[in-house]
From TrEMBL:
UniProt-recorded name of the protein: ComEC/Rec2 family competence protein
Organism field: Trichocoleus desertorum GB2-A4
Domain (ComEC/Rec2-related protein): residue spans on this chain: 251-513
Transmembrane segments: 25-43, 273-293, 300-317, 347-364, 370-388, 393-411, 417-434, 446-468, 488-510, 517-537
Domain annotation DUF4131: ranges: 25-214
Superkingdom of origin: Bacteria
Localisation per UniProt entry: Cell membrane
Membrane topology: Multi-pass membrane protein
Chief location of this protein within or outside the cell: membrane
Pfam families on file: Competence (PF03772), DUF4131 (PF13567)
Alphabetical keyword list: Cell membrane, Membrane, Transmembrane, Transmembrane helix
Record bears the keyword S-adenosyl-L-methionine: no
NCBIfam families: ComEC_N-term
Amino acid sequence: MTLAGIILCFAYILGLLITTIPGGGYLLLGLGIVAALLARQRFAIPPAIARSLRLPESWQLKWNPKVCIAAGLVGLLASLYFQARTPYPAANDVSKLISSSSVNSEQIVTVQGKVIGSPRLTRSGRSQFWMKATQVSQVIVPAQVANSNQAVSGNLYVTLPLLQGTGLRSGQAIAVTGKLYEPKPAQNPGEFDFRAYLAQEGGFAGLSGRQISLTPGTPIPQWGWWAIRQKIIQTQVRWLGSPEGPLVSSMVLGSRAVDLPYDIKDQFAKIGLAHALAASGFQTSLILGLVLVLTRRFPARMQIISGTGALAIFVGLAGLQPAVLRAALMGFAALVALGTQRKIKPLGSLLVAATFLLLWNPLWIWDLGFQLSLLATLGLLVTVPPVIKRLDWLPPAIATLIAVPIAAYLWTLPLQLYAFGLVSPYSIVVNFLTTPLISIISIGGVVSALAALVWPLAGSAIAWLLYYPTHGLIAIVDFFSRLPGNSIAVGTISTLQLAVLYGLICLAWLQTWWQRRWWAAGLIAVGLIVLPVWYSYTTLFRATVLATSGEPILVVQDQSRVGLVNSGNEAIASLTVLPFLQKQGINQVDWAVATDTQHNHQGWSQIVDQLPIKAFYTSAASKVRASDRPPAIASDQKAVPLPSLAAQKHYQLLASGQTIQIGSTAVQPVSTDLAVWAFKLYDQPWIWLSHLKSSEQNALVESGQLAPAQVLWWTGEPLTNSLLKAIQPQIAIASATSIDPDTLAQLRQKKIEVYWTGRDGALQWQPNQGLTRTLESTENEVPLL
């Protein structure tokens, strides 16, 4: 591949990446023009610097002006192409049926269409699949249907009860009745953006299905890739059982093609083994190696045809995933090179494969799996050889086992920090220990899959031989996932930090001076990550009201101390609270408060399994029921059962008016009979009210227990005028999707700033910046009721 071709490929990829910057394509064109004007120019280097770096005193730019301008144009066209390929809802898209009046009420519809792909199991235990919508009937009330058979278009994200979604096949015509809804954007900092994810897949609405029926008179598909995939999975699970059987299948077909239990996937991801469950280059190498061994006596043409057919079958079974297609394209290039007796350049092959796939679908540039696959492959190509060279004192096999995980980890770590903010300290050790097992399981799984297509009984027998290696792999993963410090949160890094880290890695790869001083690049990289974290721990004070449904939640970051008020239910704790804490670089909770008098501790069990809680507070008048207690609260990183906490200092029942001072934060239950708490956050008084009736509010005011507070935090329900006079807030924050209209009018009349999480998303307060909201929206975007 010529230098000009390499530059143009890089320009195209950079043009896609720079789409996050408004006018980024024109910026690349401008840089190309400037580079063309500077081409073939001479620049003088100060003699002292030239002598110290052993450079000539005159330096000439030798690049081609035409290539510079062409690269700028390619970057501009790439950004325009990305915008043109970005999906938008059509005029009759099913999402257009979502009315503004249905935001806080159910809009029941019956949608007809065809199933796209195979159903998958969600974390909540429901069946999920994509559906190509064709017709919609809107159900107003039971037994009454309006807008019958209205033609629509677009893809629909559908979830169903597990039993109703079982047995669905790709291409099957169905009708689903359920709630039509608009997907929500990320409402909390660092949260998964469900709306953006669906839009990238070409969908702009979701359907929470309740009932499904087959469209009469339409044939049921009897064959397809799903049938072959299902046959392989059933064959391998038959004698292996679960989770060993699904694990073997996922290591052959990829986890996207197999419903592997989420606890297994989470454990693999936690210790840095998620790549073992992803169909990509490793499986491709195994399949090609097996085909070439079986066809070694045949002509090269037959080997190419057989290898290409095997790759096509693998792509069909694993699905059209970008990482799978990248591996298949590179494998095909290797086959062509074998047949033509030419030497292939792996780096050029990787660049061409990436460019070709991004020409086919430019939206894949933001697919995290695609990005990690490219970086890991690049790391294996350019970093494994020098690492093996430095380990030449070891046997070659062991040196390779060590070099491969080091290279992949080095090149993917910055992106993982950018996306997740986590470091897996045991990743390299675990990869070293498990690589032999993964190789055995993968090779045996491929052989078992091939046998399953010819003789299922033989496929089950071969899979049965993999039981002990698979069971051993699960045991190793389980052991390391339970070790303390198996996953350390350092907080997500910025785009600038990401660019600098990869710049340092590229310098250590390309520049001889940095290659000899790789340790210096490593120290700079560590400082680039650690110093901002240290500065945040010593200076930061931030209070965050998370946007959650149900129980309101507050996170207080007071330098190195972290406080958590309420946990929510199990789903909120695991999908909202823990990811937020993780991306903030929080590895323990210093103090926690349960404000509700009913002691709904469902979410605490999820949190204490992941993070130690050093002190836990609740109201003294609340009676803790054994069934409501969290299973453990950790003190000094040791799990302690909650029934024994009442007698220990880290679990305290606070009486009315009793104040606990923790750093710059003070916590006090105002009333032990009602869920009313007072907080003092960096000298700013907050008052928390939960679901108080008007009579309870008036009784609270008459008791004289309320003191003026700058911030009123409540659940969006009606507030009495006497209560507002007693508190005299300047800011009112409602943890609710809507606010009582009369209360909102009263607050505005008193010129009190009003925020609510249903409209504004998560709300963050800092002493120097005031209150900021996650969602930049106008107050009229979401109705009050």
